[in-house]
TrEMBL record:
<dbReference type="InterPro" id="IPR036515">
    <property type="entry name" value="Transposase_17_sf"/>
</dbReference>
<protein>
    <recommendedName>
        <fullName>Transposase IS200-like domain-containing protein</fullName>
    </recommendedName>
</protein>
<dbReference type="InterPro" id="IPR002686">
    <property type="entry name" value="Transposase_17"/>
</dbReference>
<feature type="domain" description="Transposase IS200-like">
    <location>
        <begin position="87"/>
        <end position="197"/>
    </location>
</feature>
<dbReference type="InterPro" id="IPR052715">
    <property type="entry name" value="RAYT_transposase"/>
</dbReference>
<dbReference type="Pfam" id="PF01797">
    <property type="entry name" value="Y1_Tnp"/>
</dbReference>
Length: 223
């Protein structure tokens, strides 16, 4: 990959996520989704934010199984947002540009084998799905947190894409969705979900037809 390499940020205060109660252990396997800033109308985003906080407050006050109900709420919120991103023709779709999509792909591959193991990704016109496993302290001396990795990827790709666009403002939405993958069955379902995204959105007939998808060789049978 050309250009300056992504820089891992050490100040963890910068990675506080406003929406979700994240559990991000070192060495974890994660499903992450992040989207372009401005690809969702502000009024819709604020409405979702309000609805999420109302439901979260109810759970925190009244639920007898808070963790399970929060996980269910997170899944519902993610599904609503992802469906919108797949179908909304307005907003920003910068990643339709092959040049910009390649910058994002290169940023995702940069730390593969150095800080994490990249399992899969799918780059859509306004959002990105990625599955990766962080290296632990038996594999490298200073294993990263997920927030550090995502900050590095987003910071580098935002800078390079903005250069080409002639822009200086935000490129990515600050918040992202992440989920710790707990077993092989869940991993398989998520890999299929990621690779099937452009098929579901009506952009291609088969998973293998989408140019901006990647799957680790050992999982090629999924394609």
């Amino acid at each position: 990959m050309t250009g300056c390499k992504p820089v891992l940020q050490q100040n963890m205060d910068e990675f506080h996520e406003r929406h979700l109660p994240h559990f991000q252990p070192l060495g974890g396997l994660f499903f992450v989704t992040f989207n372009l800033y401005g690809c969702i109308p502000k009024e819709i985003y604020q409405q979702w934010e309000h609805e999420f906080q109302v439901e979260k407050e109810k759970i925190m006050l009244f639920s007898k199984s808070k963790n399970e109900d929060l996980e269910r709420l997170n899944k519902i919120a993610f599904a609503k947002k992802d469906k919108f991103l797949d179908t909304y023709s307005g907003g920003k779709h910068f990643l339709k540009s092959e040049t910009l999509a390649k910058i994002v792909a290169d940023a995702l591959h940069f730390w593969d084998g150095k800080r994490f193991e990249l399992f899969a990704y799918c780059i859509m016109s306004n959002h990105v799905h990625v599955v990766l496993r962080l290296f632990n302290d038996t594999e490298i001396s200073t294993p990263p947190y997920l927030q550090e990795i995502m900050h590095s990827i987003k910071r580098f790709s935002a800078r390079e894409c903005n250069k080409l666009l002639g822009e200086t403002g935000k490129f990515w939405q600050d918040e992202s969705y992440d989920r710790l993958i707990r077993n092989d069955e869940e991993l398989h379902k998520i890999l299929v979900y990621v690779l099937n995204n452009p098929v579901k959105a009506g952009l291609c007939q088969q998973m293998k037809d989408w140019k901006w998808s990647y799957i680790k060789d050992v999982y090629n049978h999924i394609m």
